[in-house]
Amino acid sequence: MAIRFTRVLLKVSGEALMGGQGFGIDVAVADRIAADIKEARDLGVEISVVIGGGNIFRGVAVASKGGDRVTGDHMGMLATVINAMALRTSLTKLGVDAIVLSAIAMPELCESFSQRAALAHASAGRVVIFAGGTGNPFFTTDSAAALRAAEMGATALFKGTQVDGIYSADPKLVPDATRFDQLTHDEVLSKGLAVMDVTAVALARENHIPIVVFSLHEKGEFARILTGGGRSTIVTD
Ligand SMILES: Nc1ncnc2c1ncn2[C@@H]1O[C@H](COP(=O)(O)OP(=O)(O)O)[C@@H](O)[C@H]1O
Ligand SMILES: O=c1ccn([C@@H]2O[C@H](COP(=O)(O)OP(=O)(O)O)[C@@H](O)[C@H]2O)c(=O)[nH]1
């Protein structure tokens, strides 16, 4: 079976982890996403993961209520660490060796991020879960995903989200929006297609990293896309 990408950075949105609950982590959903990661890894694909935190906290939500944006962003980055630990637990239950590397040092809980450590763990066959986003306020975990994809030498950035691709407009708001199979990074930016933030798309463009947007709600979809099937939008140069 031909594999389309052999070294992949998977972005898992925080909201995907909450399942139908509306807040927090649904362990059954975390277990299912872990099973999808295992399935893809069993195909021989090297996988690292950037995890979001929107199911627990978003800095902009704090700022919009008159709070301090930087503190809100710090809280959001801490939320990603909680999610990373949940995903590591789910992977470990399946016998997958996984490690959390955080952009914000918290040595009692997990290793701190360095590119050298991340590459070493990946070559040892571990699934590396990047927590803490970029470690800086005013960024998102999508930007962290593009950054870590570049640092890991990933041949694709998979954005696992709530929708099965990029549409002409937000499909949650515009029900008759049309889906694209393929786009260029320039088109995503010039058409203002807001599935990923501009910083993330620009960083992927600069490093010639394809972005694959797909739904995390479809069991087995990650592996299907890696083997040439499934539903997604691919963004290339
Ligand atoms: N043009 C578009 N095509 C697809 N999704 C879009 C588009 N514009 C906005 N979106 C929204 O972007 C969301 C994904 O972005 P993000 O904020 O990272 O959400 P999540 O954390 O839920 O993955 C989708 O769930 C979708 O509702
Ligand atoms: O590099 C980063 C990554 C994340 N965040 C904060 O963490 C929150 C959660 O991340 P994100 O919204 O990207 O999560 P997702 O949408 O994937 O659930 C963001 O809203 C920011 O407040 C940040 O400040 N810097």
Q: Tell me the β content.
A: 15-25%
CATH superfamily: Acetylglutamate kinase-like
CATH architecture, by name, is 3-Layer(aba) Sandwich
Q: Work out the helix count.
A: 9
Write down the domain tally. 1
| Element-by-element helix/strand order | EHHEHHEEHEHEEHHEHE
Oligomer: single chain
CATH topology: Carbamate kinase
Q: For the residues shown, what is the average pLDDT? A: 96
Q: Structural class, judged by helices and strands?
A: alpha/beta
Bound ligands, each once: adenosine-5'-diphosphate, uridine-5'-diphosphate
Residues in helices, as a percent range? 25-40%
The coarse overall form would be globular
In angstroms, what is the radius of gyration? 17 Å
Q: Any low-confidence stretches, pLDDT <50, length ≥5? A: none
Strand order of the largest sheet: 4-3-5-2-1-6-8-9-7
Number of DSSP strands? 9
Distance between the termini: 26 Å
What is the CATH C level class, in words?
Alpha Beta
What characterizes the major β-sheet? 9 strands, mixed
Which secondary structure elements does this structure contain, and how are they paired or packed?
Layout lengths: L6 E6 L1 H4 L9 H16 L3 E6 L7 H6 L4 H25 L4 E5 L8 E2 L2 H9 L3 E5 L9 H12 L3 E6 L20 E3 H6 L7 H9 L4 E5 L5 H6 L6 E4 L1
Parallel strand pairs: 1-2, 1-6, 2-5, 3-4, 3-5, 6-8, 7-9
Antiparallel strand pairs: 8-9
The site of adenosine-5'-diphosphate (ADP) has 17 residues, from loops.
Protein architecture, described:
Helix 2 (27-42) crosses helix 4 and helix 6 (141-152) runs parallel beside helix 8 (198-206). The longest helix has 25 residues, at 69-93. The chain has a nine-stranded mixed beta sheet with strand order 4-3-5-2-1-6-8-9-7, with helices on both faces. It starts with 6 loop residues before the first strand and ends with a strand. It has one domain: Acetylglutamate kinase-like (Carbamate kinase). The chain has nine helices and nine strands. With 237 residues, it is α/β, with parallel strands linked by helices. It binds adenosine-5'-diphosphate (ADP) and uridine-5'-diphosphate. Uridine-5'-diphosphate (UDP) binds next to helix 1, helix 3, helix 4 and helix 6.
